Amino acid sequence: MRVKVKILVDSTADLPFSWFEKYDIDSIPLYVVWEDGRMEPDVRDENAIKDFYERIRKTPTIPKTSQPSVEDFKKYYTRYEEEGYDAVMVFTISSELSGTYNSAVQASKEVKIPVHVLDTKLASGAVPLPARVARELLNEGKSPEEVLKVIEERLKKGDFKAIFYVSDFNYLVKGGRVTKVQGFLGTLLKVRVCLDIEDGKLIPYRKVRGDKNAIEALLEKLAEDTPAGSKIRVIGVHADCETGVVDLLNAARQRYEIVDEIISPMGKVITTHVGPETVGFGVEVLERKTG
After folding, report:
1. What is the C-alpha to C-alpha distance for residues 254 and 83, in angstroms, rounded to an integer?
2. d(CA 240, CA 237)
3. For the chain, what are the domain ranges?
4. Which of 6, 33, 131, 195 suits a disulfide with 85, CB 3.0-4.6 Å?
5. Tell me, which fold does domain 160-287 have in CATH?
6. The pTM is what?
7. Within 13 Å, how many C-alpha atoms sit on residue 208's CB side?
């Protein structure tokens, strides 16, 4: 008999708004912590995110962020059980970037409903992609255990990626979320720092001038193991820079067979770390072109 499974991501996944209902996925908020100690939940609400973009541009001090607590996760798990779900699957931001995974695992040990937690080793728009695959496989009748095995194998193959550029590298430096930063410091006008996630860590790999060159650098990074002509699904993400992500997707369409795409704004916590005018995408590789 098919089990009823709730899928949960954390708010750093930048889940497209339509996917809550379409794929029965929920999002648990992390928190932005302001200088006065006020904790603001990172809810996936379009108006709240737009308002945050305005405030983060004006604040003299970059706020800190905080993961959901064990009790936060327990409340979500318990509610799903009360709603009639038989199990929960949780897809979290990389444990190298946040303690969210640890909170999710600890909470899973303190509830009755079976909870399966996966550290995606990803972030932002890359996280919803394996979550959607999970829903598709569950709908085919696979068990949560079978689904996790498939997704873990695909993660090892590098089928899911997060690649983006930032317009102000100071946000990442001050937030302490990057490694190998030597040679990337500086605030030159229109300099873009390009990053991807390797082994769960944010790695800056190139510094270029201007958005056009940054988009080219992102596509070159993707092409390292996903040749032009490959079949992909994409979530374009941005922090108050929709025109930039539209340009990125337009360029990607010239090189790849994009079978599905959607644009989703970055939430409060991700924006706190990467800064306004960040542009990038989460990519799911469906079929790599050979020959």
Report:
1. 45
2. 9
3. 5-34+65-157, 160-287
4. 6
5. Hypothetical Protein Tm841; Chain: A;domain 3 (3.30.1180)
6. 0.94
7. 17
The answer to whether residue 116 scores a pLDDT higher than 70 is: yes
Pairwise CA distance, residues 244 & 254, whole Å = 16
Q: Tell me whether the CATH fold assigned to 5-34+65-157 matches the one assigned to 160-287.
A: no
The answer to whether 195 and 163 are in contact (CB under 8 A) is yes
Q: Please give the mean pLDDT across all residues of the chain.
A: 93
What average pLDDT does range 164-189 have in this prediction?
67
Closest CA to 211 of 170, 271, 263, 166: 166
| Number of C-beta neighbours around residue 169 at 10 A | 23
Expressed in angstroms, the distance from the first to the final Cα of the chain is 43
Q: What angle do CA 172, 177, 181 make, to 5 degrees?
A: 70
Chain segment 22-78, per-residue pLDDT in tens = 999 999 999 999 999 999 999 999 999 999 999 999 998 899 999 999 999 999 999
- Alpha helices in 40-168, H assignment, sequence order: 46-58, 70-82, 100-108, 128-139, 144-157
Q: Rounded to an integer, what distance in angstroms lies between the CA atom of residue 140 and that of residue 154?
A: 18
pLDDT tens for residues 66-89?
A: 999 999 999 999 999 999 999 999
